[in-house]
Amino acid sequence: MNKLSILVVALLVVLLPVQSGGQAEKPAGTATVTGSVKFEGKKPRIRAIDMSGADAKCSEAHGGKRLKPDTVIINKNGTLRNAFVWVKSGLEGKSFPMPEGDAMLDQKGCTYTPHVQGMRKGQSLAIKTSDPTAHNVHGYAKVNRSFNRSQPAGAGDVSIRMRRDESSPPMKIKCDIHPWMNAYVAVVDHPYYAVTGEDGSFTLANLPAGTYIVEVWHEKYGVMEETITIGDGEAKSIEFTYAG
Amino acid sequence: MRNTRHWGLTMSDSHDELNFWRKYVFSTDHKTIGIQYGITALVFLFFGFSLMMMMRWQLAYPGQAIPIIGALLGDTFVNRGAMLPEFYNQLGAMHGTIMVFMGIVPLAVGAFGNFVVPLQIGAADMAFPRLNMMSYQAFVIGGVIMLLSFLAPGGAASSGWTSYAPLSDIATSGQTWWLIGMIFLIFSSLLGAINFIVTIIHLRAEGMTFFRLPFFVWSQLVTAFLLLLAFPALQAAAVFQLMDRLAGTSFFLPSGLVVGGEASAAVGGGSPLLWQHLFWFLAHPEVYVLILPGMGIVAEVIAINTRKPLWGYRSMVYSLVFLGFMSFCVWAHHMFLTGMGTTMSTFFQITTMIISIPSVIILSCLVISLWGGSIRFPVPMLFALAFLPMFGIGGLTGLPLGLAVPDVYLHDSYYVIGHFHYVVAPGTIFAMFAGIYHWYPKATGRAMNESLGKLHFWLSFIFMNGIFMPMMFEGMAGVSRRLFNPEVYNTGLGAHGLTVISSWSAWCLALSQLPFIYNFFASMRKKERAEENPWQATTLEWATPTPPPHGNFPSPPVVERGPYEYSVPGAASDFSPQAVKQGV
Amino acid sequence: MKDPQYGWWLPPDVSTNGWVVDQLLAIIHWFMLALFVGWGIFIIYCLLRFRAREGHSAVYEPIKAAFSKWLEVGVAVAEGVVLVALAMPAWAAIKNITAEVPENPVIIRAVAEQFKWLFHYSGKDGVFGAIGSEFISTDSPAGVDPDDEAGYDDFWVYGLHIPVDRPVITRLSSKDVIHSFKIPVMRLTQDAIPGLEIAVWYQATDTGKFQVGCAQLCGLGHYEMKADFVIHSPEGYQAWLDEEHAALGFDDE
After folding, report:
1. Do A148 and C220 touch (CB under 8 A)?
2. What is the pLDDT of residues B75-86, one digit of tens each?
3. Which of A229, B416, C61, C154 has the greatest count of CB atoms below 10 A from its CB?
């Protein structure tokens, strides 16, 4: 073994425990909040979008069919999709590990996927285009810095770093060239947030014990909140109900 | 002898030894300031032209990476080397602003006006030399602010050189820089305008009556009045817009704006059309600010090189004054499509038709002046002669735009771009070139090379037309202006061949300026001195030593006759200078 | 793909008023050409005949003063007469376009925003719902009051569909900045100005598929602010209306 190899081995010995320590980090807590977001009342009149008059490349992506917008989607079980649930307060002063990689937002068929998402403060939002037409990503930020960048067909990702909390309400992102396209991104400085999906449920796992205000936000129906106190290892449930 | 006192003062000044800074940087000498203005304006012109060359790439080859430059620009301007639309809009707005406010006006008024007017009227300097220096400094500050605005977040101003509200009110911070830059540029022009008016009215040499003023001086006088009376409207508008952007006022924001699907926070109650009225109240007279000094230069060059008096000098002067007056009464012909009523549009159509008459008279006089001459063809004359048909095309194509009905089709199309560029580019810029070649021997004491000059002229002439003639056809084909990619439209796709011709002509035009740039600098270093009066001209600037000393004239000239006494029957030579004997 | 209808000159004209514009454009351009060629010939003749050469010298006063005065007056008068004579038919034409009140029109609202045109149709009942900028939302981009029953059957699309041979009144408005409603094949341009509603009318003479554009710089997506412009046969238009109504899917409520 020459000197260089010894050096490398020595470095590895020093570095490895740090590495493994990072991977095996303990969750911040063991409490879990679950629940669902229900919808009662009259369904709103939402008109389907016909993209063909505006941009043939958009409507071709949907086989020329009209598209129901993502604004209000009521699931089969009477729950509301695309509601953003997060711990609004009770976690102040705590710090949590950052996820690796960027939050992703894709433009496909002249709609944004996902329509609503949460991301961490300090993380970057990578906005990708998979469309054969030009878009512009216009972030109507109220707390973070607003941005407005063109993204022609085949262009590289636009990456925006979010430096501040912006979750009540989340930041709106819009394509002005295709005005029906919008998405919401909530920037939170902890990992306890969720977006309701096809069953309208949410789970905030690994919470430390404590008393929290949990807030739900929907782009059309606004916010509701609930206070909950939870101990280690406990699992509690919250039900939010929006009236149409 | 009202200016004797002034004479005494400046003559004593001229004996002081000035250090480098006082002599070249903070000079109060109108000739130095004129040259400073000239060089700065030429640099800005070239910069503005470069912006346009990048735009022409995007138009001819949409979505393709810009060669060389594309790799150097940041990702807020280009994506994988290909231009982004926001950058295209910045280039468009800044090209217009730079060419008009930082290129042509400073060159036509600041440079030629400053250098030539006091010499032609027989004055020792401008009336307010310090004001003159300040005017140049304000211009440089304004210009630098404009250029730096490219570094602002979101880039430079991108709402067009017209900065129509509310688009400009809600635009990125580059627009704020634009407004601040404009305030300095306007300030500079206002200082200059006052100075010119006072100088021309008060500092004329003995015997230099108003009707013995060279036509160029008249053009500068009328131009100065236009600047003085029109610019305050834009100055006010710029301050209003600045307040809309920074102080939350709503001068140009109506109630109920919804931007990006969200109600605007502005209080509302303002009018977007107010901006257009204030802007065009300046910007139409501004068109004449751009063209009148050019006409003045062309008149000088034509008279000298036909060796005979200008035909209809007096009617040209009357037309000029009338033109200046009328230019304040036509601004709303830029706004036919804003929904104005028939009465209003009728009024502005009539005034527009009326204003074309004095322009036609001036142009006719210049053309008829050729009759019976003995025409020489030095480089300045070539540019002056080319000015006539080029300005003619520019003026004629204004006709369909000035009538509301054809304007309904041609408004905001490439036809408009072709029209005003014919007035300003092969029109005014050719006149500017004529002036540079004409007065270069006066300013430097050296002559420019004739062969390189002719090469420069012919190439420029061909490519200028190569750029702008296709635009007329594009406009007729229905292609709108200010489109990042006209091929999005059927009309643009159909006319794409024309775009390619324009673009290649533009790049060739850039190459055609190389002989000029070389000629301009190399001629300065020539050993051989030019003659004192190389063109055998009559006007006073040729009656001083070359280059003129501080204070201009060794002793005050006394003017005895009009400015264009060429080929006077019975005279000893074919030109009779305005001042033969020098006063004491 | 390139459409052979569009080239280096005027695109096809499918409107009842377009010929007025085309005719004036033609007259003015022939007039311009005549003036330009006339002056051009005069200039070239002068440059050749009066060029400086051995044995040739300039004449101090080649045109007598009295003659020159008449010529000056003549130029002014001729210009005045020609221009006023040109301007007069123009006013007449303008009157024809804007003053005549069309009968049995189709009324369509065109709402401009960065960066698309939205066309709002009144639906089966022929009545627009209550409109206001405060009603604008993702669900109601045209600003229709969602609680107004008259607006239940309203629909909005991103392409402009009109029937042939029937006057169409388009009520233009803008949500944000100034846009300009331009249809080259209709020889029509009109600014859409926020805070104002401006009506234009036009009538198509032939069916086909064309484009509406924006002619006023409105931001970074200005170049993409285009919409299909479809001129249907009367039956085709009715079929299209029915299809749009069915697509609302509100009838079963």
Report:
1. yes
2. 889 988 899 999
3. C154
